[in-house]
Amino acid sequence: MGRTYFVEEAIGQYLSDLSTKLKPYVTGLLIGQHSPQRDYVIRAVRTPPKEEQKEESIPSKLASIDEEWITTHASQVAQMLPGGLVVLGVFIIATPELSKDSQNALRKLIFSVEKSLTKRRLWKPDEEEVSDRAALQICSATKKVVCRTYDVQDPRSSAKPADWKYQSALSASWLALDCTVNVNIHIPLLATSPNHDLEKNTKNGLNRWSKQIEDSVFLINGQIKDDDTELLEGQKKLRGNTQSSTQFSDVKVLTQLSQGSSHRSTAAVQVCSGSINLKGAVKCRAYIHNNKPKVKEAIQALKRDIINTLSDRCEILFEDIIINEGPHKKNFPREYHVLPQRLFVPVAGSSVMLSDYKFGDESDAEIQERFVEMLDQSVQVEDIHIAEEINTVDICPITDNVDDTQQKQVTKATLLLKLQQNMGVVIAAAVAVFASIFSFNYFSD
C-alpha cells in the first residue's frame, strides 16, 4: 500500500494557477512534514527563474532541466524551514507533449535534491525514518494529478503509487515547541590544517556538539515524557477550529555535563594554531501535526532545529564574509558587521511560521523580496517577527608585534563575532546587563 499525502487545499489552486501561466513546464518543491502513517503537504513552491532567463527562453525539453539550479533552490529553502518541516518531494507541471518524460525527470530531481540536502545535515536519520519522497506530475491541459514516491535510500528504487488528498485548514492548529538553547562551544584549530578554512573547522566542531544535543534531556512544560506517549496527553485538543491558532509548549534542554562511568574516554594532545568559540543562546522552534503526535516526533523535530539553526547561521556568516571580504583576503582592518538574526513569518491559513535570517543592514524590502523569490510568498512588513536582538561582529586584526616565524604559522586575522540576544532577565544591582551573548570568537596564537 502506498503512502497518503494530505495536502493543504490552497495548494490545489496554486498549482492550477502555475499551469496556466508557465509553459511548457514548471518545476517546484513540496514542503511539509513526514509522519509514520501519512505525510502532510502545507506548501508548494515553484522553482524561481534565473535572472537571465525569460519565460520564452525556457527549454522545451525536460532533458534540459537545470538540476543544479533546482537543488540550490532546495538547499536555500531548507534553511528557511523551522523544525518539523522538510522538503517532501518535487513537482512538475508539463504540457501533454512532455508528460511521458516527466517521471524520469522527477526521479532524477528527487535523488539530486536529497543528495544536496543530506550534505548540509549534521544529524543522521533514524532507522525508522520515512525515506519516501513524493514525485507529483500534473498535466497543464487536463489538470490530471499523478503522485508517486521513490525511496531515496535505495538508488534502484522504482515508483510506487501514492494518494494525493486535499484537506481544508490542514495546519491551522498545529503544535509548536519553543526553546532557547545556551551554547558554549570551543573548537581548536589544528596546526596541521589551513587556518583560513574556518568554515570547515567550525562544521567539524558543530558535528561534535550536535551529538551532545542528540543525547540531551528535553523537558516539555517542565516534565519528562516517555517517547511513545502522545504529546497532547492530558491536554484538550482544539476541535472544529478553522482559524489558525497555535498551541505552544515550552521546552527546556538539559545537556549532559559528562559521560557516564560506562563510557570510556581517551585524551589526545594536539598542536593547535588557534581556536574558534561559539558562545551564547539561540532561539529554536519546531512544529508538529495535531493527529495524535508522539513525544519522540516532537523532540526529534526540535533537536534538528537546534542543530540546523546554529549550523545555518554559521554557513550564512561565512558566505557573507567571503562575498564582502573575498576568499583570499589576508589583512583585515578592524570592522564591525551584523550577524544574521532569526525571524519568523506566518503562513496564510496556517498556525505554522516560516523562518529566515536577517543581517542588520538588510531592509524589510530585501526580506520581502527573498520570500517572494525563494518561497513565492508575499510578506507584509508587520508580519515579520524578529526573534533576536541586533547582532554585531567585531573583526580584530593581529597586532603588529608578531614576529615573522609566528606570522607564517598563524592566520592574519582574528575574528570576534558577537550575537546579543535579550532573554528578558533582569539582574538586580547590576550596572549593565547583557542577558545573552552569542559570539563567534577566532583566536590565533
TrEMBL record:
A single GO CC term for this protein reads: membrane
Keywords on record: Membrane, Transmembrane, Transmembrane helix
InterPro entries noted in UniProt: ODR-4-like
For this UniProt entry, which residues form the secretion signal?
none
Name the residues that span the membrane: 423-443
Keyword match Transmembrane: yes
Chief subcellular location equals: membrane
Q: Where in the cell is it found?
A: Membrane
Any one Gene Ontology BP term: intracellular protein localization
Function in brief: May play a role in the trafficking of a subset of G-protein coupled receptors.
Annotated family = Belongs to the ODR-4 family.
Its recorded name reads: Protein odr-4 homolog
- Source species, please? Rynchops niger (Black skimmer)
